[in-house]
Amino acid sequence: MTAVVLFAIFLALVALRSSIIIAIGLSVVAALIVSGFSGMLWIIPMKVLENATNASLLAIPFFVLAGNLMNAIGITERIFNLANALVGHMRAGLAQVNVLASVLLAGGTGAAVADIAGLGAVEIRAMRERGYTASFASAITVVSAIVAPFIPPSVPLVVYAFLSNTSVARMFLAGLVPGLLVAVSLMLFNRYLATRTDFPTQPRATGAEVLKHARSGLLALVAPGIIMGGILSGLTTASEAGALASGYILLLGAFFRTLNWKAIYAALTETVLVTSMIMIIIGFAGAMGWLMAIEQIPQDLARALPELLDSRYAFLAAIGGLALVLGCFIDGVTIKLLLVPILLPLVDAFVVDRVHFGIVLEMSLIMGIATPPLGIGLFVSARLSGAPFETIVRDVLPYFIPLLLVLALLVLVPGFSLWLPNLVLGPV
């Protein structure tokens, strides 16, 4: 009964477009009252504070700050120019540039929507100037941003590592191969589309042009190296590595002479807003997780579902499908905060590696940003380009062919997720 009340009220409030924080808070209060625990309402603020101030999450504001600083001091445009010099001459040139730039910038933002907002304006403007339609430019910008959460440093993977009690370093390494797999699949599909559509072309960049853009673009890519190097070597924690990367980007802005107080203020303001939202949601989701734990909802599911699903692959496919649908309506971080505590007993019951499960879950959730009718990435790109929403949807839908194929590969072949972390850190 408690579970029914909890999720019914939560889903009803989400459907009414209520704030996620209000939806979680009210559903927990109602479920406690129905369960006869009204005298324990005082525990809710305690659990919110306990989860939102967990030291394991200190890396999040530093990773967010690093990405915002890169946007504020103009590094995104330098990365786009580097990608353009490298692959702009290929068939569907600027579409390929869009994907490669997302791979390169993902190491700075670690979040898909930040990738769209940061690179999107540069990419869409450049593609429109070269003759691409606004809707196609928006579509490829959205789907290429799906790479972002897999390339370190990744805020979504940090959140999952915290929830599942897995290593941040292991999750970062696990995301690299799937992220590159997504990028390659999108670039191959771009090439296929180029055989059926008369995309604009551009000449190959000269060696001097490549060198010019490499000098500034590659300096920006040192920041992800600082983070991964510090964490994997054991010299720094994830939080310290994020702080060092943010400091490095500030020095880079001074070197490029693009750093000013206005840029710093804009980056800090956006960081405070984004981090506050994430931490408050984490806090309230922790209260919901506590209620589900005392009601033994995860344990009940762990006993019931193995009778319905006959293999780990069926379990992963079912959870992937559920996450893909939920990702259309609710932010991925919120879904992880709600689902992961429930699903971990099932993950263990089906003998699925928690790292592998995290990558499959992330792939399913992040595809939601490009899934109509409510994919947030579609709305962000539509605002940037001014293209009608329905035309962007039309151009996005074909890209679900390579994306679903990648998701199927990640479900069926755990090695895509586990090979690199096992190679570098050893098997668990």
Description:
- Belongs to the TRAP transporter large permease family.
- Part of the tripartite ATP-independent periplasmic (TRAP) transport system.
- Residues 7-415 form the TRAP C4-dicarboxylate transport system permease DctM subunit domain.
- The chain crosses the membrane at residues 27-44, 56-75, 95-119, 131-151, 171-193, 214-235, 241-259, 271-293, 313-330, 363-384, 396-420.
- It is a single chain.
- The protein is an all-alpha fold.
- It has two domains: 1-41, no CATH class; 42-425, no CATH class.
- The protein is built from 22 helices and no strands.
- The protein has helices spanning 2-15, 20-34, 43-52, 59-72, 75-87, 93-109, 112-129, 134-144, 155-164, 168-194, 207-220, 222-233, 238-256, 261-294, 297-308, 312-326, 332-349, 354-366, 376-385, 389-396, 400-412, 415-425.
- The chain starts with a helix and ends with a helix.
- The mean pLDDT is 83.
